[in-house]
Amino acid sequence: MESVLHTRPALKKELDRAAEVAGYLWQRGWAERNGGNLTIRITEYVDDVLRTRPALCAPQPIGIRLPNLKGCWFYCKGTGKRMRDLARDPMSAGSIIRITEDCAHYEIVADSPVMPTSELPSHLSLQDYLIGSGSNYKATLHTHPIELVAMSHAREFLDSERLTRLLWAMIPETLAFAPLGIGVVPYALPSSVELASATLEMIKRYDVVLWEKHGTVAVGPDIMEAFDQTDVLNKAAILYKTAKQFGFTPEGLTPEAVGEIRDVFHLPSERRG
């Protein structure tokens, strides 16, 4: 069967961007084996022909009713699939799904019945919140940034405000391009309800959340923006690590310098939520 991307250039462009991000994750060592996942809301790119396409499998339970997702469509990385394969061909390593009328199930529509990531309930819960809050964010990304995960092994960095201030102080661009900072969620079993609930609470204040000893979750208007947020924060972590390797603790930007950056870039002094 011909791929749904063949006659839908706007949708193809969106998934090409996902493939580009997947390649970056693999190149950086942030997506070992089948590590990491991503979900993108693609409703605006779905035409009438695709809407009438029969499902490839029976409706699958999400595990929770998400009323804001009624009528929504998503592209999701497949469970057990590798980012390096998604980088080559997003439809061989992922699938397009639609949320059913009851807002509690999904159906796989294309290209083949690749089951979505096991983190799908968490991703969809975040998407439900974003729609409900009026956000224009459409992408969620989970990956394993090496330096940020390493920092989460130290108790001193498990305070969201302290870690955010430290990372902001490493280089002006961190504050400029990640102005909401990073929230920290204590360790919980991957794919658990506890982890999903804690992440949802943190995403109300931060665009990037660090799961202790595991990885990050980021949201953004598109998948590249979600990646960029993560990349900027991890660059700050690399700078901190490098200074420590040189044998000193970095001084960091002064509070006055941070305030000046906020003024120049017209950044909010308070987080959302």
Task: Write the topology of this structure.
Layout: H1 9-27, E1 37-41, H2 48-51, E2 60-61, E3 73-77, H3 83-88, E4 94-99, E5 105-110, H4 120-132, E6 139-143, H5 146-151, H6 160-168, H7 172-177, E7 182-185, H8 193-203, E8 208-211, E9 215-220, H9 223-245, H10 255-265
Parallel strand pairs: 7-8
Antiparallel strand pairs: 1-3, 1-6, 2-5, 3-4, 4-5, 6-9, 8-9
Describe the 3D structure.
- This protein is α+β, with helices and mostly antiparallel strands.
- The chain folds into two domains: 1-144, Class II aldolase/adducin N-terminal domain (L-fuculose-1-phosphate Aldolase, 3-Layer(aba) Sandwich), CATH 3.40.225; 146-268, Class II aldolase/adducin N-terminal domain (L-fuculose-1-phosphate Aldolase, 3-Layer(aba) Sandwich), CATH 3.40.225.
- The chain is built from ten helices and nine strands.
- A nine-stranded mixed sheet has the order 2-5-4-3-1-6-9-8-7, sandwiched between helices.
- Strand 8 (208-211) and strand 9 (215-220) form a beta hairpin.
- Helix 4 (120-132) packs parallel to helix 8.
- The longest helix has 23 residues, at 223-245.
The chain-level mean pLDDT equals 94
Q: Report the CATH architecture of the largest domain.
A: 3-Layer(aba) Sandwich
The biggest beta sheet, please? 9 strands, mixed
Morphology: elongated
Major sheet strand order: 2-5-4-3-1-6-9-8-7
Count of DSSP-assigned helices: 10
Strand residues, percent: 15-25%
Helix content: 25-40%
Integer-rounded radius of gyration:
19 Å
- What is the CATH topology of the largest domain? L-fuculose-1-phosphate Aldolase
Oligomeric state of the chains in view: single chain
- The parts where pLDDT drops under 50 for at least 5 residues are none
CATH superfamily of the largest domain, called what? Class II aldolase/adducin N-terminal domain
Beta strand count: 9
User: Cα distance, first to last residue?
Assistant: 46 Å
Structure classification: alpha+beta
